[in-house]
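Troubleshooting log. The previous structure file for this entry was overwritten by mistake, so regenerating from the original sequence record. Sequence copied from the archived sheet and checked twice against the printout by T.R.
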Amino acid sequence: MAPHDVSCPETTCQETTDEQAWALAGHTRRDVVVVADRFAQFARGDRVLTMSGLLAMLDAGGVEVPGCHWVVHLGQGIDATDGDLLEAACEKSEAAVRLADPDSFRQPLERPVVVHKDRPENVLLAGVHSPVPTHCRAELRIHRDNELVLDHHTGEHVQGIVIIEAMRQICIAQFETAIRPGLPPAAYAGVWKRIDLSFEDFLFPLPATVESLIVESDLRRESNLKFRATTAVRQQGRTVATAGIEYSMIAQGRVDTLERRKADQATRAYLG
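Regenerated output below.
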């Protein structure tokens, strides 16, 4: 979907009132997207703007277009702090500007422990939801300082390694939120056995979703739980990538012992 075709989410009563008022004033609606400065290469033309660019335009009154009211949609890299700045700037500006979904940026990222990360900015998921234990869905949320986007020079799209990591995280999140609560207390580590990955389209710094469907599992050994899942990343109705993944969730103590033994073997082999 092109940026100017971004669909408008369900509006509140106040937003509907604003729309009606602007319509009566003869204003036409102009939809734009704002993304973090990190994705400046994607923010070209007049339909996608960077955070700093939009704030500067609002401060200078440059967003005002005769006969138009602006509806700003939030792309990737925009967090609660950015959203608060945008809301304040919109209220201060004399131009007819509002956020399409003021609450979307306030939805927090998942806690790092849910996706086995240490730093919050490296979490790629928000709103993890499992209607049944075998099916998990989440919003893709890319922080502007995520470790995987700090050094990227291949154009306007989001690089494939982000997609792969999002798939890893949805599998971990599905285990921790939908399966792990039914097991005896223990810490687990994810160990990937196989991944069959297909890229079908570019991923851009716009809203997207990540899904995982467990198609086979073996839970007979609590210290080594085995899964086979299909995962997908989708954006505006397009399937960006799919993967079949085979992995195990292994008790942390067992992983530590196995890894230490293999590390010693590797060291001895290297040193002869």
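The domain at 112-260 is CATH 3.10.129.10 (Thiol Ester Dehydrase; Chain A). Archived copy saved in two places this time.
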